[in-house]
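Lecture 7, part 2: worked example. A protein chain together with 3,4-dihydroxybenzoic acid.
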Amino acid sequence: MQTKVSLQSELAGIHFDNLMMNAAGVRCSSVVDLNKIMVSSAGGAITKSATIEPREGNESPRMQGLPLGSINSMGLPNHGFDYYLDYVMKQQEAGNNNIIMSIAGTSIDENIEMLHRLQASDFDGLVELNLSCPNVKGKPQVGYDFDAVDQVLTEAFSFYNKRLGIKLPPYFDLTQFDQIAAVLNKFPLAYVNSINSIGNGLVIDPETEAVIIKPKGGFGGIGGEYVKPTALANVRAFRLRLNPEIGIIGTGGIKSGMDVFEHVLCGADLVQIGTAFGPEGPAIFERISRELEEIMDQKGYKSLDEFRGKLKTL
Ligand code: DHB
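Predicted complex, written out as structure tokens:
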């Protein structure tokens, strides 16, 4: 039997044929990798977070797969702002609006400078300001400093008038959700993307009695199955608190159609796949689409809207 379910979605007025895409950082640093996502079943793509200048990132080994996920301390290796702006502009010129440009300056000033350049550019699509990179030595995750989030968004929206989303670190206390949501609701954000990796976990090889990645004494961001309950909690907590005009991208622990289903139940408009996309590659979007279609078909859902945000409580 042919399934007639739709995985279409919308974010900030932009239509996506499929709600899935890569998570920033994984297999999206080069034009070659980005093009592979664009021709896959994914509904779009997001670029590796850019800094103004190209960066080599941290020393290797800086990423390791784990039984239930991954640890990384990449340190923002990227080709620099101009490289990614050039790519998203070419996509836009080709009529593709499903490309998100991610930026992650290592200071508020660097982020503001990149936003000025984007404002001055002809790029009209989605931009994601990453306030949650845990891996740049000596730099705190802005997302954990609510005053700093307020400050950077106040400055950004004083001149930036295009669609801007933000990527946030995971929060763990309900009062944190209340406080950060109160800040975010002051701004015309296009969307919130939750979660970035759980920062500064430590994975040890008991055989060698050593850490398994080199930067920062082995501390790194945790992704994959380990983080799914935290990701679902963040998507749910934000959907319950954010203005309805602010969309949500759910990221964290997705490796099956059921994981996507759960993210959407919590309120995700789109979802991103990081850790599981690494080893499996672009074919993952087709596999998970099929799995999700089957789940929806069995449950009698024809569209994501029928169950988005409708998580039941006991
Ligand atoms: C890196 C990791 C992140 O989680 C992020 O949001 C940005 C950059 C990195 O180490 O490259």
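The chain has a mean pLDDT of 97. The CA atoms of residues 111 and 286 lie 34 Å apart. Keep this in mind for problem set question 3.
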